[in-house]
Amino acid sequence: MKQLLITILLSGSCGFLAAQKTVKTPAIYKPVRTEMYKKGWIDFNKNGVKDIYEDPSAPVDARIEDLLKQMTLEEKTCQMVTLYGYKRVLKDDLPTPEWKNQLWKDGIGAIDEHLNGFQQWGLPPSDNEYVWPASRHAWALNEVQRFFIEETRLGIPTDFTNEGIRGVESYKATNFPTQLGLGHTWNRELIRQVGVITGREARMLGYTNVYAPILDVGRDQRWGRYEEVYGESPYLVAELGIEMVRGMQQDYQVAATGKHFIAYSNNKGGREGMSRVDPQMSPREVEMVHVYPFKRVIREAGLLGVMSSYNDYDGFPIQSSYYWLTTRLRGEMGFRGYVVSDSDAVEYLYTKHNTAKDMKEAVRQSVEAGLNVRCTFRSPDSYVLPLRELVKEGGLSEEVINDRVRDILRVKFLVGLFDHPYQTDLKGADEEVEKAENEEVALQASRESIVLLKNDQDVLPLDISGIKKIAVCGPNADECSYALGHYGPLAVEVTSVLKGIQEKTDGKAEVLYSKGCELVDANWPESELIDFPLTEEEQKEIDKAVSQAKEADVAVVVLGGGQRTCGENKSRSSLDLPGRQLDLLKAVVATGKPVVLVLINGRPLSINWADKFVPAILEAWYPGAKGGKAVADVLFGDYNPGGKLTVTFPKTVGQIPFNFPCKPSSQIDGGKNPGMDGNMSRANGALYAFGYGLSYTSFEYSDLKITPAVITPNQKTYVTCKVTNTGKRAGDEVVQLYVRDVLSSVTTYEKNLAGFERIHLKPGETKEVSFPIDRKALELLNADMYWVVEPGDFTLMVGASSTDIRLNGTLTVVDCINDSTPQSKENEAPISASTNQETVNNVVDNNPTTFWEGNKGDYITFALQNEAKVDGISIAFHRDNGLETDFEIQLSSGGGQFLTVYSGTVKEYHKLLNFPFKGTTASDLRIVLGSDRVGITEIKLPQIKK
């Protein structure tokens, strides 16, 4: 089978890859050592007693502490490392007697990519009998898990980790567009569905932790991993990241591990050097662009994992930075999961950064900084043994080890590894993975990710009734490998663009195909710098494509990039079409036939010639296994494209850095008159701007309202407008809201994305779109690096892109609302809040399903009866992610000064909890939130003013 796989992959075929053996697998998995498995609990330490850590009803923190006190140093340190799976480091697919003599006889923190089919870069998927089908794979992971539960002293389950940025990485699974394509959908609900499916399929396959989403913000289009970012806007990355994590972690089906923390995606000149060194950014840019998504996803979605990045920032490697991994990540952001290293990040401290003298010192620095688990393609001994030496020598405190292990165990308890360590529904795995409903979501994602960049004279959609022959050419026309790379499903059926067109036109038109050229030429990438003449063979292949184009009614040219030109460690020196692709395009256009250019690629390309001379251009990114069908649906009008750019297309690499958001006037320069007698010295402006995208229909914007138009920094306002489909086709529009601080103490971005909604409208249909605006959209980092909202005017802009603004208005922020404004009436109410004033009465309506919600620092205030003496309050809290949160109760005796009388932590939700404090006479009581997205459903406070 291996030879078959190699032949299929190297030929670029899209056929289904069958598993090597068919082994009968039971429908339900049952472990062997039945005496351990009690009714409702598991005797992990085999002592016949239900220890606290074995009790599913005990609080998580109590279970952690009970287990931790039973662990030896050997067992603790084994939890702090990953064992890479079959054929990566682990030579066995299933446990062997030899495992009792290996390091992991005392347990292991995680096993990564075990039997997921990936072997090495450039190799075909594994043909091991336990890779597929899904039931057999889940059975095998259960057998590995059984070793750790039944054959180690304390029975601590391992965390099965895996990749999953475009579907879980498995031999087969639901295959989505790469993350850049998903970003171009601008569809929160769709991304949540992608997350749910990715997490659910992963858990059914036996995995409990998935390394996704990528929260890096795109900044340099040359970067090889641009294909993996959602886009260039930190707000959009945060919004989609929140939905992806909420979907993946739904019901704690898996833990999501976001990457790469932090300041990873702006390496100098697009160069990577494996350690991604020397990002050139100011501290303010790091905070506003790169920290922002992580902070929000952790606080609002309860992200359970973070991958620490290779790179340094300002000379300090992130991997050894206590400031980043502890002070900021855990202290400020409230992260309660565990940090895993990105591959050789620990080793790079001494092999590349040269800030540690050897591996032992690198281990010490990493653990002290806040690393929980080292994850790389090396033996776990290489990390664990020096770690143990450090503790025994006094180089590391065992209490630090305890802290790191607590985080690891917390995640394992939260995802249910101590209560349901096995995936017992083996038959269900076969039914769930890649099921029809999941595939429909994948197809919708592929469709929604496509962006129409150009459509002169309405060349698209193509009218099949008037076409007899279609010429299809280009190196990506019959290519499938873009959907089968690392970090996602490996061997699924892929519909190429050619196949999609053939299926769409079957019996209606003849499809002529020629490749036209290879993705790159023999001299690439040097051919980006030197113009090598076409070889005879290259000219012959182009001539064949031209001949077919002349014979056809329309030509579809499918160009772009692929695994040779884009991906990890594949940054480029140019953004032009690689190889002979432009030569092919020019030759086909010269035939005079209508031409449609379809781009399949992982980064924006400087397609200046195409933009000027090709009438229709579709950007499909890497559209997943269903990409060919999605492209064909768009070409022939069965689907109206509605994707919008989340990245900027520069005209040339000479403009980089060139992206969104940007400082005022930073994207233009020099004169405006070209030619011999002009004053223009450089190409200005973007080829295509952030937010741009066309449709087969048209949309009209109207009736902008800002309510209220005057607020204080902690209040919320709503921006509403109406959007009407004024064309003849149903279609999607991505309505975008941008904010500009008119006058500020420091320079702010020209436009900040502050809201977006993808809406579907029938011809003639009108919908009202509403955007909430709170302090997050108005904040800036002041001169002292504090997040503040400065009073003044803010321009609110609603439009179809960052440059196509249709409506605008002004929001005014004041220190306080004066008595002449309508808002002052709200302040007279017995209950007021710093935000979401319209929902404050939900806390006294005796309805446990309604609530008032705010973010960290927000508060709700209750006016008390005259001379009221208060000594306690009952509060029922609400939080979607169920994570603990801090809060304070404050009292005021008048004059606006509040003093804290109670500080506590909420661990239970939707239950009235009593909080007593020293009684005193007060005029107002205030509850202050300590985290984002925390709600109060009900309070009991008899002293509230009537």
UniProtKB/TrEMBL annotation:
<dbReference type="InterPro" id="IPR017853">
    <property type="entry name" value="GH"/>
</dbReference>
<dbReference type="InterPro" id="IPR044993">
    <property type="entry name" value="BXL"/>
</dbReference>
<dbReference type="InterPro" id="IPR013783">
    <property type="entry name" value="Ig-like_fold"/>
</dbReference>
<dbReference type="InterPro" id="IPR026891">
    <property type="entry name" value="Fn3-like"/>
</dbReference>
<dbReference type="Pfam" id="PF00933">
    <property type="entry name" value="Glyco_hydro_3"/>
</dbReference>
<protein>
    <submittedName>
        <fullName>Glycoside hydrolase family 3 N-terminal domain-containing protein</fullName>
    </submittedName>
</protein>
<dbReference type="GO" id="GO:0016787">
    <property type="term" value="F:hydrolase activity"/>
</dbReference>
<dbReference type="InterPro" id="IPR036881">
    <property type="entry name" value="Glyco_hydro_3_C_sf"/>
</dbReference>
<feature type="domain" description="Fibronectin type III-like">
    <location>
        <begin position="733"/>
        <end position="802"/>
    </location>
</feature>
<feature type="signal peptide">
    <location>
        <begin position="1"/>
        <end position="18"/>
    </location>
</feature>
<dbReference type="InterPro" id="IPR000421">
    <property type="entry name" value="FA58C"/>
</dbReference>
<dbReference type="InterPro" id="IPR008979">
    <property type="entry name" value="Galactose-bd-like_sf"/>
</dbReference>
<dbReference type="Pfam" id="PF01915">
    <property type="entry name" value="Glyco_hydro_3_C"/>
</dbReference>
<dbReference type="Pfam" id="PF00754">
    <property type="entry name" value="F5_F8_type_C"/>
</dbReference>
<dbReference type="InterPro" id="IPR002772">
    <property type="entry name" value="Glyco_hydro_3_C"/>
</dbReference>
<dbReference type="InterPro" id="IPR001764">
    <property type="entry name" value="Glyco_hydro_3_N"/>
</dbReference>
<dbReference type="Pfam" id="PF14310">
    <property type="entry name" value="Fn3-like"/>
</dbReference>
<comment type="similarity">
    <text>Belongs to the glycosyl hydrolase 3 family.</text>
</comment>
<keyword id="KW-0378">Hydrolase</keyword>
<dbReference type="InterPro" id="IPR036962">
    <property type="entry name" value="Glyco_hydro_3_N_sf"/>
</dbReference>
<keyword id="KW-0732">Signal</keyword>
